[in-house]
Amino acid sequence: MCYTEIMRALYFDTDPKAERFQIELIRRMPSWKKFTMVDDLNETIKVFAISGIKQRHPDATPEQIRRLLADLMLGSELAGKVYDHAG
User: Fold this and answer.
1) Which of 6, 15, 26, 58 has a Cα-to-Cα distance from 78 of 20 to 30 A?
2) Under 8 Å between Cβ of 57 and 68
3) CA 87 to CA 66: how far, in whole Å?
4) Exposure b/e, 61-82, CB count within 10 A at least 16 = b
5) 33-87 residue pLDDT tens
6) 47-58: b or e for each residue (b if 16 or more CB lie within 10 Å)?
């Protein structure tokens, strides 16, 4: 099975020609641009996560929100190690 067949299985809602074009654009993209895109996506996910935390915990302080975000991103055990030693 070739690479494009594997990728095709992930994008059932995308026209194969459009998908090949997208993949080719990403392949030709300089590394710095790819890192920028990943960074932007990570920031978007963080904003959505914080929004969800605020909806579930409307009275949370900024510190509590940061801790809850750390729990989501790092897992409770690692967040506990980081935050329990920082305070």
Assistant:
1) 58
2) yes
3) 13
4) eeeeeebbbbbbeeeeeebeee
5) 999 999 999 999 999 999 999 999 999 999 999 999 999 999 999 999 888 775 5
6) eeeeeebeeeee
